[in-house]
Amino acid sequence: MKMEMEMRSIEEIEIGTDITPTLTPLSFSLHTSHLNTHCSACFSPLPMPIQSIPNPNSLFYCSPPCSAALSSLHHSSAERLLPPSAHSSDLRAALRLLRSHRPSPSPRLAGLLSNHHLLTSLPNPNPNPNPPPLNDDVSQTITLGARAMAQAISNHRRLPVDDAVFEEATIALCAVLTNAVEVHDNEGRALGIAVFDTNFSWINHSCSPNACYRFILTSSSSSHSEETQLRIAPHPHMDSGGVSVCSSEFGKGVQGYGPRLVVRSIKKIKRGEEVTVAYTDLLQPKAMRRLELWSKYRFICCCRRCSALPFSYVDHALQEISAFSYDPSCSCSNYKFLKDMADRRLTECIEDVISEYLSVGDPETCCEKLEKILMQGLNGQFEDIEGKSDSIIKLHPLHHLSINAYTTLASAYKVCASDLLSVDSEIDINQLKAFGMSRTSAAYSLLLAGATHHLFNSESSLIASVANFWIGAGESLISLSRSSGWSMCVNLGLVVPDLAPTMKFKCSKCSLTDRFKACISHGQIKITDFENVSNEFLHCVSDITQKVWGFLISDCHFLSSFKDPINFSGLVVTKSSRTVHAEACVNKSYKTDVCYTHEFENSICICEDQIHTDNVVACIFQLGIHCLAYGGLSASICYGPHSHLVCHVQNVLDSEQNFVLYSKEES
Questions:
Q1: What DSSP line would sit under 49-89, residue for residue?
Q2: What is the rounded distance in angstroms from the CA atom of residue 15 to the CA atom of residue 463?
Q3: Torsion angle (degrees, nearest 10) of CA 303, 449, 444, 394
Q4: How far is Cα of residue 282 from the mean position of the Cα atoms in its chain?
Q5: Distance CA 424, CA 345 (A)
Q6: Where is the SET domain (predicted)?
Q7: Would the pTM count as exceeding 0.90?
Q8: pLDDT digits (tens, 9 = 90+) for 435-491
Q9: Over the stretch 501-535, which tens digit does the pLDDT of each residue have?
Q10: Are strands 108-109 and 27-30 parallel, antiparallel or unpaired?
């Protein structure tokens, strides 16, 4: 939830269905860093990026229509009069919103809740005895921003600043902070922000949402043919002032320009059911989601997932830490303190390594440090706690920090391989080492997808993350199957599989690729069909993975602790909630009603015969095709069959199919 308003379905909605027509924003603004690279009107890339320091007072456009649509608003909204230190996408969007819409007697602007009393006065409406900590920085930021806006507005009007202008500026800025969404491009980069009308902004948050949204970043002059009708309507409510709020307050966009948005179902939605989306990362544990939502929006989420007692399985897994003590007399009274300290230290360690990698750019060191943390945890690092110096604290493989680490490791190993080949691709040892790092990168991508899919089985709202991770794993595996490193292994006299396999594009055991193509053609898939395809996919991908996993992880000690990157059921032991509670003793192997067994000390050994028995190249290729097709099918549910990501998957699959057919003819 956000506050008071909600949108409900006016009809039965199947999974993977557009819920709204294409929505245009009430206000929007690029982040300052992208002012020279993207069109300020539609957010599409500029044909020729401007090579200069970004200047908030000099906006650029991709076409004359875009310039005509936004330049007049830019000059009339007073944003040009903001001091250089105050320029931000939030303030620019707030001034543009205020230029087109004036505050009403109710605490709303263009029908949007401003939430300004909560954001500026910091009351504590939460009855929970342990609310998230209040953030004074938000209130101070709003005050400083509103003052800068008020001064710019007064200068533009040639009038002195007064309380009424400051109040208008505060309401507009709070409305932007409460309702704006981050606009991402096809590569996931944050380009700017946009505020949409009540058709979208009245959709509340849930940590188990039944809908998501996608952006359309193209020239705004394109026609909106075959538009979906609006399938949701506001549920009758009174605002906090007792004023009836209805759809007549809906605002209008800037002549159809700006980054556009479509809401789409990711679950089957019943008629009259509330439609919800996520305001935060769903792969964060409950405490982190709760803190972020409180800091940004000042509400405590009471959705099904957050209200579950005991915690949902997914939230258990995302925060689980394996704690062991060799001291049989260890007291359990300090368990919560020990766990909280371990959480903080492990978070600091991993975030520091990732931040250092992003700033310094040393992928090999990053890989070494992250794998050391994942393998060793906080072994013996609690000397400052009496009786805890022998405690071993490790992240569970499904912990949210572990998932972040897998993501970084998959990327960093890929960069390592690329760097090695760019230095001197003629040196055999460099090529062989790069090939090994590509294998490890593909293994981490597969582990990441498998771990997230395991969580997705319990929380279907994670489908967008699952789609992206399976697509990443598929591309990594297909790229590995096409690597020149296989020939290098032959040149060095190493035992390798047959390099001229008959690689079949379509699987005889499942209909995944056919289902993907059918979904692209028809634009929809029924929930029962998707469940059946998911089961077929898991069966096939698990079978193929067993044939290649040993080969993929043969150079990585940490990955060798995973016997199966797809099946995580062996890590879970369910205990009765009557005999196990949240503060169980540290020297037990469980701490909650769901607990996990760790197998880092029992690494599996890979025999050379096992690695090279099967046709590894063909299996890796087939595994990649499965991952890519399933990721594409999942993405079509989230973003639609004609979205950029789905079209990208279709293009890759088409090119690989043509390549395979060509290879067969040559052989």
A1: ---S---TTS---SSHHHHHHHHHHHHHSSGGGS-GGG--H
A2: 11
A3: 30
A4: 8
A5: 39
A6: 197-279
A7: no
A8: 999 999 999 999 999 999 999 999 999 999 999 999 999 999 999 998 888 876 655
A9: 455 566 766 778 888 888 887 777 888 889 989 99
A10: unpaired
Task: Kindly give, in sequence order, each residue whose CB lies less than 8 Å from that of residue 290, ignoring residues fewer than 6 positions away.
Answer: 132, 300, 301, 306
Please report which residue ranges of 180-285 form alpha helices under DSSP H: 198-201
Instruction: Using DSSP, state whether 394 is helix, strand or coil.
Output: strand
Contacts 24+ apart (CB under 8 A), 161-166: none
CA gap 291, 495 in Å, rounded: 53
Q: Could you give the CA distance from residue 16 to residue 106 in angstroms, rounded to a whole number?
A: 36
Contact 6, 24 (CB under 8 A): no
Each residue's pLDDT tens digit, 556-609: 999 998 999 998 877 653 433 322 222 233 233 323 333 333 333 333 333 334
Query: Count of alpha carbons within 13 Å of 211, Cβ hemisphere only?
Result: 29
State the CB neighbour count (10 A cutoff) for residue 37: 16
- List pLDDT tens digits, range 86-98: 889 999 999 999 9
| Coil, helix or strand at residue 646 | helix
Between the CA of residue 191 and those of 29, 173, 184, 228, 665, what are the distances in Å? 9, 19, 6, 26, 46
Q: How many degrees, rounded to 5, is the angle at CA 434 between CA 433 and CA 437?
A: 90
Q: Note whether 391 and 339 are within 8 A (CB).
A: no
Using CB atoms within 10 A of its CB, is residue 512 exposed (0-12), middle (13-18) or buried (19+)?
Answer: buried
* Beta pairing, strands 260-265 & 244-245: unpaired
Q: Write out the two tokens for 459.
A: 């929380």
In whole angstroms, give the CA distance from residue 90 to residue 29.
8
Q: How far is CA 23 from the centre of its chain?
A: 22
Q: Which residue has the tokens 């919103």?
A: 97
For the record, the structure tokens of 589 come out as 């192997």
Q: 396 CB contacts (<8 Å, ≥6 apart)?
A: 317, 320, 321, 322, 402, 571, 596, 598
Token pair, residue 211, equals 């809908």
Residue 363 has pLDDT above 90, yes or no: yes
Give the number of C-alpha atoms closer than 13 A to the C-alpha of residue 107, restricted to the C-beta side.
Answer: 18
What is the C-alpha separation between 27 and 45, in angstroms, rounded?
A: 19
**Whole-angstrom Cα distance, residue 148 to residue 137?**
16
CB 600 within 8 A of CB 375: yes
CA-to-CA separations, 137 to 114, 134, 320, in angstroms, rounded: 18, 9, 31
Q: Describe the crossing of helices 89-100 and 136-157 by its angle, rounded to 10 degrees.
A: 50
Q: How far is CA 575 from CA 346, 572, 582, 592, 596, in A?
A: 26, 10, 12, 8, 10
**Phi, psi values for residue 38, rounded to 5°:** -135, 155
Q: Please, is 522 exposed, middle or buried when counting C-beta atoms within 10 Å of its C-beta (0-12, 13-18, 19+)? A: exposed
The per-residue DSSP string of 605-644 comes to PPPHHHHHHS-HHHHHHHHHHHHHHHHHHHHHHHH-TTSH
Angle ∠(55,60,62) on CA atoms, nearest 5: 155
What's at 327, amino acid-wise? D
d(CA 237, CA 239): 7
Q: Containing H/E element for 29?
A: strand 27-30
Evaluated on CA atoms 448, 453, 455, 461, the torsion sign reads: positive
- 518 SS3 class: helix
Instruction: Assess contact for 399 and 320: CB atoms under 8 A.
Output: yes
As a 3-state breakdown, the chain gives helix, strand, coil percent values, each rounded to 5, of 50, 10, 40
Handedness of CA 253, 255, 256, 259 (dihedral sign): negative
Amino acid at 595: C
Cα distance between residue 444 and residue 411, in whole Å: 9
Q: Which residues, at least 6 apart from 104, have a Cβ–Cβ distance to it below 8 Å?
A: 249
Hey, what are 466's tokens? 């699952």
